[in-house]
Amino acid sequence: MSITFPSLVLAEIDLKEKSAQNYRTLGYEAQKKGDLDTALTMYIKAAELGEASAPIFNDIGVIYEQVGVDEKAEISYLRALKVDDQYLPVYSNLAYFYKKRGDLNKAAEYLKKRIEYGAPSDPWTTKAKDELSLLSKKLPHLRRWLIQQEASEMNRQLARQAQENFYSEILNADNYYKEAMALEREDKLDQALEQYNRALVVTPKSPKITEARNKLILKITKRNLKQHADMAMRLLESGDTVSAGVEFQRALSIIPKEPLPVSR
Q: Degrees (nearest 5) of the Cα angle 177, 182, 187?
């Protein structure tokens, strides 16, 4: 005999969730039309059915504040934060709520949090900074906080920019390295060496690029040595011993004076 009770419970939960979503939608539509009483009723029903989200408690708080029930507005805003302390709009709403009531210190605290949690590019973050700057005229200690916040934000931006530049340089160096290898395969050795040099300007401590460059220098040296040696032998066979000697001297001069460590 199968037990159907869990299925019935799940079906009931699903029905409640759908009903809560419907009530929330009705509340939002009523709020857009300015029918605050209906909107509030729908939002409260949605919350009672389990739609315990920060946005809905925030919306309930907004409506309570608009109809002048400040105590319930405050409770609703704080419930929104209890559900999700990363839901940013409620910080702004609480800041303006406390400012309206004359509690500037509390207003400042919520503006600070809105600034700290918000993205610098967010217009609401900028608005919170402007509002806090206005409050600093009455609460001078806020000026130091604003200066410190701006300095911290600038440092973060510089750190992000430095990191982006670093990754960009690594990418550029890798592209030069790949171009060098392709040129080397085409036997364009001198051009390949130029690309390895460019890569090492960007990442001078790269072991991979350094070794590839050293191997190429040896390859170029062997090629040039052979060219000079072949020319010297031809000159010698023709009887031009002076020119042959000069050519051998040229061959010796192109050998690197410092060792080039490469793995074999």
A: 120
**If DSSP codes are grouped into helix, strand and coil, which group holds residue 39?**
helix
CA 26 from centre of chain: 38
What is Dmax (Cα atoms) for the chain?
A: 113
pLDDT in tens, 176-216: 889 988 998 999 989 998 998 888 888 888 888 888 888 88
Buried-state track 11-20, b at ≥16 Cβ within 10 A, e below 16: eeeeeeeeeb
Domains of the chain as residue ranges with CATH:
1-87 (1.25.40.10), 162-253 (1.25.40)
Whole-model pTM above 0.85?
no
The answer to whether 94 and 85 are in contact (CB under 8 A) is no
Q: How far apart are CA 256 and CA 218, in angstroms?
A: 9
* Distance in angstroms (rounded) separating the CA atoms of residues 74 and 69: 9
At 47-76, the pLDDT tens digits run: 888 667 898 899 999 999 999 999 999 999
Distances (CA, A) of 131 to 116, 120, 156: 14, 15, 23
